[in-house]
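Query structure, 107 tokens:
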């Protein structure tokens, strides 16, 4: 199962952590893992392309992105990624769970 934790302070996105594997199909054919991975890397790339500062760790079965930017561009990118992950959860709830965690700002 893939577990997604969305870190927020009130309505401000502060980061996301994705752990685990969907195991919805054999390795290399798992569309749930592929979709989640594409969204995670897309978040990283979109933030980087816009020059937004963030920290990211990406390893097999683990992705964590910490964001300390409340600009509309950064927040829109994060919102879009989370909504995409929710779409996967709606269709494959056996393999992915998303939860919000209210946290204090990182700074």
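Result returned for the query:
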């Amino acid at each position: 199962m893939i577990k997604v934790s969305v870190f927020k302070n009130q309505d401000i996105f502060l980061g996301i952590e994705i752990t685990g594997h969907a195991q919805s199909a054999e390795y290399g054919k798992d569309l749930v893992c592929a979709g989640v991975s594409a969204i995670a890397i897309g978040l990283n790339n979109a933030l980087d392309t816009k020059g937004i500062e963030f920290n990211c760790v990406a390893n097999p079965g683990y992705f964590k992105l910490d964001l300390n930017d409340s600009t509309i561009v950064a927040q829109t990118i994060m919102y879009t990624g989370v909504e995409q992950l929710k779409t996967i959860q709606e269709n494959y709830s056996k393999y992915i769970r998303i939860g919000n965690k209210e946290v204090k700002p990182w700074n």
